[in-house]
Design goal:
This protein has a domain at about 5-195 and about 225-255 and about 310-330: NAD(P)-binding Rossmann-like Domain (Rossmann fold). Helices cover about 40% and strands about 15% of the residues. The protein contains 12 helices and 12 strands. Helix 1 links the parallel strand 1 (about 5) and strand 2. The structure holds nicotinamide-adenine-dinucleotide (NAD).
Length: about 350
């Protein structure tokens, strides 16, 4: 049986991971540590809040004493580390929080894990899984091969640079101190609980409210998309079957330009308006309410500084070594995502009106 410390699980991917893990390994205990920044939302965990074997602690991964106390008190043997500042645009306007959480916070967590699991002891079974991003590899041009685990790091935004630094620290704690670590570098995720500042949920809610769909520049930037539960399944295979000290890319070979992504989303929402009668009443300002195509809302805005042109992840290593395969394609995953947002309006309404912070 495992006792997991999952950091940052009031956020998008961590929350999905905790729900996935609970369903897959109901016997395991889970402690969530989350600082509840603007991106953290206790409602993401409400379905399991009062369940046995689940605890939530509000606090920062920069708080060394709290971390040590939590790890000792709960007998943590597995850390799954999601906590991060994660929004590239915010890293451009305010990089300091990215340095504090993503670099100093990850280092604090590593330091405490080493102290509790290794210093002065032998043979304590443990695993530290670090969740990272494909953005550490920088950007690709149209004809470049996809990022491999061996691709040299070339981060372009303060967000990507801070994640790259944290990846190096995780690697160093394995090589220097023997901490049993693994790292995953995943492509762009989408799915339930995605905070509506990111492209897919932002555009989805704007369609429902009849607002413009802002596309940076010509919208030809390419991103590689993975349904969030397929990310959790990848982390699961690494924790259970991966080799200590290794890095695995997680992705689904699913490259789309931003403009095509938004157009596909528009088509899916249009088909929901055609199928589900009450959507016209619930969302009277949406183009679908008057049978107008949602893509009429697309509006090009000036590009962001240093915008990476293309990300593409080669997930061949996890597929061949750990038999990993994503289950969703982009259409099926986006369809599920749209259904989730349509069925969980109180969740996103609380974010839009700010009441989720209370
Ligand atoms: N979103 C993606 O597409 C994507 C892709 C690949 C990798 N990742 C990585 O996955 C992880 C999770 O991403 P996400 O999109 O769920 O992010 P998110 O912004 O939705 O969630 C981050 C969570 O971390 C918490 N947090 C922030 N600072 C903290 C601190 N100091 N101590 C404790 N908790 C803190 C926040 O409150 C929030 O709940 C990140 O490490 C990110 O780099 C994200």
């Amino acid at each position: 049986m495992r006792t997991l410390l999952v950091t940052g699980a009031a956020g998008f991917i961590g929350a999905n991971f905790v729900h996935y893990w609970r369903k897959t390994y109901p016997q395991d205990a889970i402690v969530v540590l989350d600082a509840l920044t603007y991106a953290g939302n206790k409602a993401n965990l409400s379905a399991i809040w009062n369940s046995d074997g689940f605890s939530f602690v509000e606090g920062s991964i920069c708080d060394e004493a709290l971390l040590e106390n939590l790890m000792q008190q709960h007998g943590i043997n597995t850390v799954v580390h999601f906590a991060a500042e994660s929004h590239v645009d915010r890293s451009i306007t305010g990089p300091d929080a990215f340095i504090d959480t993503n670099i100093v916070g990850t280092h604090t967590l590593l330091k405490v894990a080493k102290r509790v699991w290794i210093d002065g002891r032998t043979d304590i079974p443990h695993h530290f899984h670090h969740v990272s991003t494909d953005e550490v590899y920088g950007t690709l041009s149209a004809d470049d091969p996809a990022f491999l685990e061996t691709t040299a790091y070339a981060p372009n935004s303060p967000y990507a640079a801070s994640k790259a630094a944290s990846d190096h620290l995780v690697r160093a704690y394995h090589h220097t101190y023997g901490l049993k670590v693994s790292t995953s570098n995943c492509s762009n995720n989408y799915g339930p609980f995605h905070f509506p500042e990111k492209l897919i949920p932002l555009c989805l809610l704007n369609i429902l409210h009849g607002k413009a769909l802002p596309i940076y520049g010509d919208g030809k930037q390419i991103r590689d998309w993975l349904y969030v539960e397929d990310h959790s399944r990848g982390i699961d295979s690494i924790i259970n079957h991966g080799r200590a000290g290794e890095t695995y890319n997680i992705g689904g070979n699913n490259e789309w330009t931003n403009i095509d992504t938004v157009e596909l989303l528009c088509q899916i929402v249009d088909s929901k308006f055609a199928e589900i009668k009450d959507l016209k009443i619930r969302f009277p300002d949406s183009p679908g309410a008057t049978a107008v195509a949602s893509k009429s809302l697309i509006s090009h805005v000036s590009d962001r500084p240093g915008h990476d042109t293309r990300y593409a992840v080669d997930a061949g290593k996890i597929m061949s070594e750990l038999s990993y395969q994503p289950l969703e394609n982009f259409k099926s995953g986006l369809d599920k995502t749209v259904d989730w947002y349509l069925n969980n309006a109180p969740w996103w309404q609380a974010i839009l009106d700010g009441s989720y912070r209370k």
